[in-house]
Design goal:
The protein has helices at residues 2-49, 51-64, 67-72, 89-102, 128-133, 152-178, 182-214, 238-281, 287-296; strands at residues 76-85, 106-112, 116-124, 140-150, 215-223. The chain has 297 residues and is an alpha+beta fold. It has 2 domains: 11-235, no CATH class; 239-297. The protein has a 5-stranded mixed sheet. Strand 2 and strand 3 (116-124) form a beta hairpin. Helix 1 (2-49) runs parallel beside helix 7, helix 2 (51-64) runs antiparallel to helix 6 and helix 6 runs antiparallel to helix 7. The relative contact order is 0.11.
Length: 297
């Protein structure tokens, strides 16, 4: 009977301990489940924070895998400078405007004074060469300069970075929709704002670069002949005459100084040498004088 009671007591204790362990485990699971979920979301947020660095390596890999594309589709920016002599500024301005419209371009900036006008024209890059060839119709061409810049690498680098930032932004938005913890949401929103700002800045750079590639820039300077106004009156070049006057005065003093130096350097020693000869021959020493006196005797 005692053995039966002992076995019953042991069984009850074992059952109690088993039930207690099960309850504790359930309690632990209930307590740590939100924490585990929060840690999982935090890990995903941290993953999003580090994604920029990973995408930088992806940019380099994608750029290195596209050498054939960049070599086939070069991106060039053309710039031209024209200096033209004209007889009438108003007519030349109208001629420049017609010349620009002929090639589908537009004038982005212009300025003028009494003797010249300066115009900045934007011409489609496909018509740049032809436009530069026909510029002589505006007036007498005095100078022409053409320059081209290769921006292929810059263009494709910026294009690739824009694409990767857009992908990153979509992933961050997805993480934000799945986030439950307030701290994680704040981190992801901050990162979204940073990426959005960077994306807008890079898109602005791309728009400006595309504009430079699509439209070449030609700087046109149309000017009247020297010392002439639109009525044909030749104005006296007082500045040149004044500069010439002072140049003559300066030249006179320079010549005077050099003459005085010649006299001092060569004239004075010559005079001293002649005085020495006279002193030896006819002065106190009187060598020649004594010689002539002996000859006479």
């Amino acid at each position: 009977m005692k053995n039966i009671l002992r076995k019953s007591a042991v069984a009850l204790v074992a059952a109690f301990l088993f039930i207690s362990c099960g309850k504790n485990q359930a309690v632990k699971n209930e307590m740590f489940a939100p924490m585990a979920k929060s840690m999982k979301m935090s890990a995903r947020a941290d993953s999003a924070m580090n994604m920029m660095q990973e995408m930088a390596f992806e940019d380099s890999a994608e750029l290195s895998s596209e050498p054939e594309q960049t070599s086939q589709d070069r991106k060039l920016v053309y710039t031209g400078n024209l200096t033209i002599e004209v007889s009438n500024l108003a007519e030349s301005k109208s001629s420049v405007e017609s010349w620009v419209k002929k090639f589908g371009g537009y004038i982005s900036d212009s300025s003028e004074n009494t003797s010249s006008i300066r115009i900045t024209a934007k011409i489609p890059s496909g018509s740049f060469s032809q436009a530069m060839q026909e510029c002589g119709k505006i007036g007498k061409l005095k100078s022409k300069n053409i320059n081209s810049s290769d921006v292929t690498e810059q263009f494709y680098d910026l294009d690739t970075r824009l694409s990767t930032r857009k992908v990153l932004l979509e992933r961050l938005k997805k993480y934000l929709s799945e986030a439950k913890d307030m701290q994680d949401m704040l981190k992801i929103e901050t990162k979204i704002n940073d990426v959005t700002s960077e994306l807008e800045r890079m898109q602005g750079q791309m728009n400006r670069l595309k504009s430079q590639i699509d439209y070449s820039t030609i700087y046109v300077t149309a000017e009247l002949p020297v010392n002439q106004n639109e009525s044909g009156f030749v104005m006296p070049d007082t500045n040149s005459q004044l500069r010439q006057f002072f140049a003559n005065i300066l030249n006179f003093f320079v010549k005077f100084i050099f003459t005085a130096l010649y006299i001092v350097i060569f004239g004075v020693p010559s005079v001293l040498f002649l005085m020495l000869l006279y002193w030896l021959g006819f002065g106190k020493v009187g060598l020649l004088r004594k010689l002539f006196a002996r000859i006479r005797k």
